[in-house]
Amino acid sequence: MSNRAVLEVIALDAQDAVAAQTGGADRLELVTDMAADGLTPSTAGFTAIRRAVDIPLRVMLRLADGFAAGDIDALVARAAELREAGADEFVLGFLTADGEPDLVAVERLVAVLDGAQWTFHRAIDRAADRDGLRKRLADLPGLDTYLTAGAAGGVDDGLPVLEAEAARTGEPGYEPQILVGGGLRLDHLPRLRAAGLTAFHIGGAARPDGWSGPVSADAVRAWREAIDA
């Protein structure tokens, strides 16, 4: 990947993936069932998308809505199957009932990922202690990104947190890249870019007709141009 700012787009299928790549996406997050906020796609779905595009793919590891790990044995089995099928980047993140990182679940998945790069997703925005979560996960292999809006309510609420965390880049626990997503709008970009943030994640913003419609290459291109401006 080049040194330009990263644009990651959610893709549900190969059609989405091709449109996102055409519009200038650098990477895709692969999910299914957005009614449940994005679950693990089938291995066949991953394979079809992998054949359709040549940009990096990060595959969601989550079997049910929310931030609890649920059936971790089943999820580990799915992760192993996807890894065998060629998936080499992932998205995951689980909390305990009291908002602490679920290290048992995360470490079991990281073990089966066997060195693959991965994003800790927006569970960080629901954590009881964001700083503590980062420090507890700091030594896990493969963790290179946090997907975050800065707050559970979205980027509007989280802008000050995102700016503060960007200023701590390189400190223990703050080495992973901040990938901004969750209610992200084009008008947020100037402030985020001024703070030094260099990675952005969109889902519904790439779909003019909503989640019932496909990704639009033109919509992705508008984001690409705005990020690069």
From TrEMBL:
<dbReference type="Pfam" id="PF03932">
    <property type="entry name" value="CutC"/>
</dbReference>
<dbReference type="GO" id="GO:0005507">
    <property type="term" value="F:copper ion binding"/>
</dbReference>
<dbReference type="InterPro" id="IPR005627">
    <property type="entry name" value="CutC-like"/>
</dbReference>
<protein>
    <recommendedName>
        <fullName>Copper homeostasis protein cutC homolog</fullName>
    </recommendedName>
</protein>
<comment type="similarity">
    <text>Belongs to the CutC family.</text>
</comment>
<dbReference type="InterPro" id="IPR036822">
    <property type="entry name" value="CutC-like_dom_sf"/>
</dbReference>
